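Predict structure. Chain length: 293.
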Amino acid sequence: MSLVELVQRKSRTAIVLLAAACSSGPGVETQPRPSPGPAPEAGGTPESPVSVSPGAVVYRPAAATPYAFQRRDSLTLQLPGGATQVQEYRRIAYLAIGVRGAAPPYEVTIQLDSLRQQGGSVPPDSLFRAEGTRWTAALSSSGQLTDLRADRSSTIGDQVGATLHALFPALPLAGLEQGSVWTDTTQRSLKADAFDAVERAVTRYRATAADGRAITIESSTTFERTGKGGQAEQPMEMTAGGGRRGVYRFGRSGAVLTAEGTDSAEITISVPAVGQTVPVSQRATWRIESLAK
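Prediction complete.
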């Protein structure tokens, strides 16, 4: 079977898998920037004391706060023979995020209260199965999110889970202040239906403005990703490279108030059994907003 026939025959599955594999955030297992020893689990051994500058902002415990997380995605597949297949969709996830603990690493809980999607080829019942998914993780005072785990697995729920790190931008170890400039390097394992992948990323941040309520952070990321997946009778391989840009308003209380950004990636999906490849261009815009009053 040619790759064109494969994609045409399994177009719904292929688009869903590609959307998951190309999502902006890292996946369910994270290895943050190097630290002196393994990252502790939530509620585990407290972090080593770090000198935080007076008046600097860090992550802090907070009661469950509602958020809206919106993404608009476009995937363009260039099929052998010149044909083009385009998939576009808009998704809004309504989340409740709580941070608990007397000292870092804090315990984070993220609840997917409801989910809406326009476009794409996802059956409505898939959205219902994803609703109610609950993730837990450990969060350092500088935003290292580790050991992210979901209490269930579903196609759409896993896609949402792969974007949750966007809710927690890294902060300087000494705390966030106006004028801060810092870099975060990560290597993250991504499980997203189609592929078991590894993403290596470098993000450069700078704090550009401040007011009485929040500090504005600009971020610029470059990443590379490799992975394998597919089905047993038709394994696939994936390589990707791209970038992300974001602007955050990080509240002085220790959490994101609003954020927005763009993602782009050039991806190559190959099927070794037939010796063909499909180039994929992914573009996305996203917005995060705290709904707390």
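Summary: The CA atoms of residues 262 and 285 lie 4 Å apart.
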